[in-house]
């Protein structure tokens, strides 16, 4: 639980009493900047604010950083092709890739700019591929090139396609090493991290958001209905709600915040399967990232290589119909990969990799994507709400930070810091 907070610029220790009957009786402490959520975006924000000489406290209900979406993704550095021109996703992805590549090179974080091929496997997909090419150019993605089938197959002999879009700027990285570096740099600049510490809500006092904080273990026996009693009321000057999968649920528990501005929450599970061939890591069938044209809810079942050469396919899209608040706060999503889902993978993969053998895919891992649109609805942009939207000073809510969240993380942090501090 929370061992120390910032009080008027000084770190102060205290002991938490037993919960009182009403939150109004809970002890209060002041802090300068609180970042809720120690995922990749929260860590980038904490680092950025600490570089601005702000005293930063990062709270996360998990026992360590990056336990949810940040550690369950493709680890791909996107170039910025897919997203509507001038959208936050387009702007942050293009800017974020440059910041991220520089940061990884500077800090020695394992990464590799291996490039990506987005492939049309039938003539009906070529118009969509052309649209992606034009959109990528509009977004400022560098060195994009359309390839005919022979050019693409010369690069990747196992590939089947009728046309392909080459994105040389795309790549892969070690997300854990990145997060470890962000944590270390933030701590060097004075940031404090408190794990097993849950923010369960908040309320307004004047124009200041007061956070309701308790130990994570308090939530484990919660029935989801009775009012939660905080152990502490934390009074920050700045609050960044970067809690990922629980960001929308938490915002709805900020009493006094206009709930009409909080979009509905949707969740999609994405499973990955790994190529099990004995020599796949030494002689993988592909050297580039291979992506089909995008599908509803995601970018399609694509080929990703990790830095060790292991080939994986995914993610698919499996909508989750109902998510209780306790699942959000405690990250109790079902991350198991059903073996039955592999039957859907083979025909999708064979559209561009026809030589995939039966029985060569084994279950890998799954991740959950926090979405702002549901099945059959148009994809949504990132939503970043500051005082100009909700009227609460010092509060920034980050909603729907899914792909390309990892690539965009440092650009989002840059934007949030400017929104809060100016400049």
From TrEMBL:
Keywords: FAD, Flavoprotein, Oxidoreductase
InterPro entries: FAD-dep_OxRdtase, FAD/NAD-bd_sf
Keyword check for Flavoprotein: yes
EC number, as in UniProt: 1.1.99.2
GO MF term list: (S)-2-hydroxyglutarate dehydrogenase activity
Domain FAD dependent oxidoreductase as annotated: residue spans: 33-419
Enzyme class: oxidoreductase
Keyword Oxidoreductase attributed: yes
Cofactors required: FAD
Domain of life: Eukaryota
Gene3D superfamilies hit by this protein: D-Amino Acid Oxidase, subunit A, domain 2, FAD/NAD(P)-binding domain
Protein name, UniProt field: L-2-hydroxyglutarate dehydrogenase, mitochondrial
Taxonomic lineage from the root: Eukaryota, Viridiplantae, Streptophyta, Embryophyta, Tracheophyta
